[in-house]
Amino acid sequence: MKEEEVQSVTPLLESSSSEEETQTKDETDMFDLEEWTTPEFISENDFDMIDMLSAALDQVSNQLDEKQREFLAKSTEWTAKTKDRLKTQTKKLEDQRSRIQELLVKQYHKIDKRMNRDAKTVQLRDKVSFVVGVGNACVAPALAVRYPNSIPYYYSIQLVVLLILRYVIYRSKRWHYFIFDICYFVNCMTMLFLWVFPTSTFLFIATYCMTNGPVAWAIITWRNSLVFHSLDKVTSVFIHIFPPLVTYCIRWMPELQKDVYCDNQSFVTIYRNTRFPALGDIDDISFKQVMIYSTTAYIIWQSLYYLFIMVGRKDKVESGLRLTSYSWLLDDTHGQKGFIQKTAFMFGAKWKAEMFMFLQLIYNIVTSIPTFFLYKNFYLHTFFLMSMFAVSVWNGANYYIEIFSRRYISEIESIKVEDEKLKKK
């Protein structure tokens, strides 16, 4: 968005020594929100509209903070009349901010409703999701057993496509801050090892521990469900089960391609170590390495997340304009009495974010411990991945039996009713 467009919407407040000039500027400084309904200020691109509204909201918030600081600094010198005028102006700015926030929320709902109002579009999307979900459930195990060296390519292509779709969909719902969660960070670690730093032993061990630790166990903690018709749920299962499958195929490639008629493991090992030199430099991993490398990776992610989301975007998160995993878990009205909420609020609401980060650290450490044993035993690692996949299937079965049969039919019927009403108009 161009700077001139923002300035045309929210002109900066300027002070004046003359009372008449100040009054005149007070009336003209406040941009008229009714103008947002005119084509002159509304972009045909909904996301541009959101960017414009967000910029306007940030500028009004900055003006509000500036006026409040000015009031505190000069309150002892100003006359009562000047104070009243400044208070009036501050109240107007607060009203503007509230109205812009409402416009932003309405704009997000508008995009979300338009993306899901067409029954045929919803059905086509769900059919594609079904094909992708079933395809992964059938094709991925076959490739892992017969061609484990192809799994990194299979994973990488799908990850790029699914994450692009997820970002577009989540942004329309104001959920795109979820993409900064640790599971996405670990997927980035996996991609970096596969295509940028295959020689890094630190990156491989850290990725192995994180993928088979906190990311894989998140299938249970976050109740990931293999619901084939839901693109959102298929993507969630993908980003949690495929990274551990990739590291599994790399670690156990010689065992997976073992020929019962001849000893070919040495050739497969040479191929693997040539493609991923880090494996050639690792004879074994120690429990100390598991703990240090996984914790280091977690601390790097948590530091970035804290600075960018919890501090840099604090106002947007607390105002409800953006939804994050920690705000959803801590403020969800459907789960206020859960273990996470009770523990996070143990020392009061002031320390809830810090307690939540501490809980995540404990979770990361505990779930990383089994990876030491998974790295040493092929059958144990195989059983572990099969169990995690089975949990996602079980959760999906519960969803289909208990929820889908009622919700999906009701959703399609409501969409058709809305379409009929639009046609009659």
From TrEMBL:
Keywords for the protein's UniProt record, in alphabetical order: Acyltransferase, Coiled coil, Lipid biosynthesis, Lipid metabolism, Membrane, Phospholipid biosynthesis, Phospholipid metabolism, Transferase, Transmembrane, Transmembrane helix
InterPro entries: GPCAT (IPR021261)
TM region(s), chain numbering: 128-147, 153-170, 177-196, 290-312, 355-375, 381-401
Domain of life: Eukaryota
Topology term for the membrane: Multi-pass membrane protein
Coiled coil: 50-106
Renumbered residue ranges of the record's region Disordered: 1-29
Keyword hit for Endoplasmic reticulum: no
Compartment(s): Membrane
UniProt keyword Transmembrane present: yes
Family: Belongs to the GPC1 family.
Protein name: Glycerophosphocholine acyltransferase 1
Organism from which the protein derives: Helicostylum pulchrum
